[in-house]
Amino acid sequence: MRLWLLLLSFFGILLLITLLNARINGGFKIESSWIAIALAPTIIWLLSSGQLAELSGFGVAFKLREAVARPFSLKIHGSKITPEVLSSDEKGSYDAIQNFIRNRIPAMTLQLGRKGYYYGPVIMEYLKQLTQHDFFRYVVFIDDAGKFSALVSARPFYEQLRANKVDIVNLIETNDLEPIKGLISSAISSDSNKREVLEKMAHKNLSELPVIDEDGYFIGIIDRDKLTSSIVLDLVAEKQ
To answer: What transmembrane ranges does the database entry give (predicted)?
Structure first.
């Protein structure tokens, strides 16, 4: 991110907050907490790129080191997700699609390396119907032990399978996910702190990151916007 964009963002946000306050309360003034909010994009970029531990200025001390050392909360900063597993009983059957819809299941699991287990047309029909609903968002790939291997956004995944006529069963059975675009194979442990999450997101250029438990099982998604917002709120709260 270029310096002029950071400066433009800072002054633009600060001006907007000042004008809104003047319209609501009358009079022009600038609070230190507003400066913290306006500096948020700059702070988060410097922080996630590993270039900043603490910033002081404008009479405000931003204790970023303490703020980002705190653990993240999947409930607050992301989404807990329990994917629905497609079992062998569903091969050749479409009955469980309604279960996904009825229970608003956000993801489904496909197990890699399993031969003679999945039926391509059924997987495609699941994706076709489920991606019409906003709540269904991900396809999670797991290994033979049930641990996280990769994740992909469901709708783009379905569209590329359909457009390119990809044999999804062959990819699953051969454990070859390289042809899939938008695949996320990186994950963050649930016991990581906020800084570790931001650094990994910056390194991988991701706005969302899969979360795994201590045993390597997928448990949800952490969202960069929610995480950075919480850091800014922590900084502002410290100045009140």
So the answer is: 32-48
Question: In this predicted model, what pLDDT tens digit does every residue of 154-213 receive, in sequence order?
Answer: 999 999 999 988 899 999 999 999 999 999 999 999 999 988 998 898 888 888 999 999
Average pLDDT, the chain: 80
Indicate the pTM of the whole model: 0.75
**Rounded CA separation 111/210 (Å):** 17
Please check whether residue 180 is in contact with residue 151, taking contact to mean a CB–CB distance below 8 angstroms: no
Q: What is the mean pLDDT of residues 136-164?
A: 95
Per mean pLDDT, which range of 95-99, 135-139, 157-161 is the poorest? 95-99
Report angle CA 224, 226, 232 to the nearest 5 degrees. Answer: 100
Amino acid at 215: D
Contact between 110 and 157 under an 8 Å Cβ cutoff? The reply is: no
Strands 84-85 and 107-111: parallel
3-state secondary structure 203-221: HHCCCEEEEECCCCCEEEE
Nearest 10 degrees: CA dihedral of 181, 186, 190, 196?
-120
